Amino acid sequence: MAKPERAARGAVKQKERALAPDFARGLMLLLIVLSNTVFYLWAAPQGPSGWHPVEDGTVDRAVQFLMIVVLDLRVYPLFAFLFGYGMMQLYLRQSAAGTPGRAALVLLSKRSVGLLVFGFAHAALLLAGDILGSYALAGVVLGWLFLRRGNRALAVWSGIAVAVLVLTSLVPALLAIAGGDLGPDQFTAGESTTAAYAAGEPDYLASMWTRLRTWSVVTFAGGLLSFAGHAAMLLGFLAARHRVLEEPHRHLTLLRWTAVLGVAVGWLGGLPAALGNLGYLDVPAAALTDTGALHGLQTGTGLAAGLGYVAIFALLANRMSDRAKRNPAVVAVTAVGKRSLSCYLAHSVLFAPVLAAWGLGLGEKLTSATMALFATAVWLVTVFGAYALERAGRRGPAEVVLRAVMYGRRKTDAPVANR
């Protein structure tokens, strides 16, 4: 009987890693932890969007403005791009070692199953807004459909995915805005984000049930219906084929144009929602909800911003001299990227018990500005922790478990963190 096909190579060695992808993941996690802060402002009165509170302080309003323009619906496409990029890197590495294509896809499917389990536990215990599950699900579907396709097919399907996003989100939003059809002045507000994420629930078991309900929607709707995430992941596949992040010096024109145009389009697309939420733009409250025109404008332009951020991170990595790359701060941020799964989960370990009502309840006292400071401090804690692990030559604990799921009990390469 024929033996089952298996991966030809184990975990990635330290010398195989490039700076830019890990550096980008490390900075991405700062943006993610900042974007998650709105889930924990559970005592503040919520604005019409259900995402941000109504606040009077100048600093709080300034922080909220920046959050809506820079982060809302912009960080998740960034995560999806880097997730897809990492998937293709792993697939190409296995293929180069002689692993059959199907066996390489099975290996990646094991990884996705592991991430789905991590996501379920993450949501049950701490954070309903877990994004591991949705991208793990999307990764399985898109991986089997597209990882073995050629560059031309990937380019075509990436273009189709972007077109679907534009046609379903951006075009309807622009038509509604141009026609003045922004929704009724009176509407019934839906469930606020803090309620859906159970941050204000004092009963831990009850909060767990709420988190799992929300997570199931985020995972399955996001994994199967998030056109921005799908487009970003496919573009990540294509970029990895061309080693855009490993060899940014060969793609400087592309990266510069992507950085400038992506950030400009993304920030301009988020500006009306920010002004509307803060009351500087007179629009119906319905326009700011998840089904409103301004939310559609944010969704349709979020992919551009996410790609712009990736390009900026790659350009920063390319500009660094060999001496700068050995700078402790750069090494520490890159170490976070190498242990991105562990650090992402650590955010919630440090957030939820301190901020949620079932824990210490500090979220009741914080505002947008003070919450952003708290989130930055949490990210810095993970930076120091990742740096300590890097100095000790150890992987993150979540990465150790995930690699066991992927590669079994076989002997792996050097004990350093990797994808």
Helix content: 55-70%
Shape, per Cα inertia axes: globular
The figure for the number of domains is 1
> By helix and strand content, what is the structural category?
mainly alpha
Give me the oligomer status: single chain
Proportion in β-strands: under 5%
Largest sheet: none
Gyration radius, rounded: 21 Å
Beta-strand segment tally: 0
Which H/E pattern describes the elements? HHHHHHHHHHHHHHHH
Poorly predicted tracts of residues: 411-419
Cα(first) to Cα(last) distance is 34 Å
Mean pLDDT level = 88
DSSP summary: helix tally:
16
What does the model show?
With 419 residues, this protein is mainly alpha-helical. It has one domain (14-184, 194-407). Helices cover 67% and strands 0% of the residues. It contains 16 helices and no strands. Helix 1 (19-35) crosses helix 13 and helix 3 packs across helix 11 (293-319). The longest helix has 28 residues, at 151-178. Mean pLDDT is 88; it is low at 411-419. This is Membrane protein.
Keywords:
419 residues; mainly alpha; 67% helix; globular; disordered C terminus
